[in-house]
Specification:
Elements: E1 4-7, E2 10-13, E3 18-24, E4 34-39, E5 46-51, E6 58-60, E7 68-73, E8 78-83, E9 92-99, E10 113-116, E11 120-125
Parallel strand pairs: 2-11
Antiparallel strand pairs: 1-3, 3-8, 4-5, 4-9, 5-6, 7-8, 9-10, 9-11
Length: 126
């Protein structure tokens, strides 16, 4: 049973930085696109960033482009999200997710990710 476990969330002041990690159990991590989504209270879950299985393709939402960086280390079965220049509107629960098919590329399509972590809270104070 593959599981995704996020860590690294917390409380930070506006302008600060955080680094989120998502560790995957199981041996199939390397073949799948991974993504980060977030959900703020009262809002729909939205894509933040995605990375293909071999890091050849990367997607960022317009709201985080230039501030967040997604990366992966297939040797460690881990995907990362570096959050810089944080804003209060970045406050949300951040989830990592695995693409539904090996070697597929899904950008930020919510319905194309079918394995989710439990989420980690990011709170940015003004």
């Amino acid at each position: 049973q593959v599981q995704l476990v996020e860590s690294g969330g917390g409380l930070v002041q506006a302008g600060g930085s955080l680094r989120l990690s998502c560790a995957a159990s199981g041996s199939t991590f390397n073949s799948y696109a991974m993504a980060w989504f977030r959900q703020a209270p009262g809002k729909e879950r939205e894509a933040v960033a995605a990375i293909s299985w071999n890091a050849e393709y990367i997607y960022y939402s317009d709201s985080v482009k230039g501030r967040f960086t997604i990366s992966r280390d297939n040797a460690k079965n881990t995907v990362y999200l570096q959050l810089n220049s944080l804003k209060p509107e970045d406050t949300a629960v951040y989830y990592c997710a695995r693409g539904e098919l090996p070697y597929g590329w899904f950008r930020g399509s919510l319905s194309s990710y079918n394995l989710w972590g439990q989420g980690t809270q990011v709170t940015v104070s003004s």
